[in-house]
Amino acid sequence: MHLETLEPRRLFSAGVVPAGHAVARSDPQNSPGGVTIHATAGEAFTGAVGTFHLDSTPPPIVETGADINWGDGGDSAGQIVQGSNGDYSVIGTHTYVKAGTYGIEVIVSQGPRCPPPGGGPCPEFPTRIIDTIESTAEVLTNPGDVNGDGRVDFADLLALTQHYGKRGADLSGDLNGDGAVTFSDLLILAQHYGR
Ligand SMILES: [Ca+2]
Ligand SMILES: [Ca+2]
Predict the structure, then answer these.
(1) Which ligand is nearest to the CA of 156?
(2) Pair 138, 155: CB distance under 8 Å
(3) Which CATH number goes with the domain that contains 124?
(4) Burial status of residue 1 (CB atoms within 10 A of its CB: 0-12, 13-18, 19 or more)
(5) Which of 135, 172, 175, 190 would disulfide-bridge 104, Cβ 3.0–4.6 Å?
């Protein structure tokens, strides 16, 4: 648990906690509440990236929020959902471009919840970080991505057709790994084309 009394966005902009600083940790460790997620490069992932516990339900003037650093330079706000056991999950959406293992950092903070317009002034107290969760993303290569750039497009089709009909080990374009570039591989590429 961290008890800094600084506003997270301000921390980011001041460079104290640079957004997305945890770039491709080679051996990420999950902290308590951390999870390992599985995603495919080039396809949007949506799901829980960590869980946390609150000792009591926050009063209505307190808003709990989460920022997710995805480990590849991207960051986004998380949605907080309470589970049936009372613990909270942080849900996020992200698309990784490249396959690999990434360290995810989820920063959970609590700050003032302002009333709707006309409902009076915002409560005045500082936002504080209440938890930092370390999670891991295992990102697999898109099955149709021949050249490994995270997208399946015309360049992959070209790379595959250059080896079409050939046999051998580690052939570029042998997407199903059966030792030959055939119609089956073209079908895999077609199924993932444009992703
Ligand atoms: Ca590609
Ligand atoms: Ca094949």
Answers:
(1) 1
(2) no
(3) 2.60.40
(4) exposed
(5) 135
Q: How far is the CA of 127 from the centre of ligand 1 (A)?
A: 43
Same domain, 125 and 168: no
For the CA of 169, the nearest ligand: 2
Q: Ligand 2 centroid vs 165 CA: distance in angstroms?
A: 9
**Tell me, what's the pLDDT at 42?**
85
Is 125 found in the same domain as 92? yes
pLDDT for res 119: 85
To the question of pTM greater than 0.90 for the whole model, the response is no
pLDDT of amino acid 142: 87
Task: Provide the greatest CA pair distance for the chain.
Answer: 73
Q: Which of 79, 67, 82 is nearest to 20 (CA)?
A: 67
CA of residue 82 relative to chain centroid, distance:
20
Domain extent for 185: 154-192
Q: Distance from the CA of 43 to the center of ligand 1, in angstroms?
A: 13
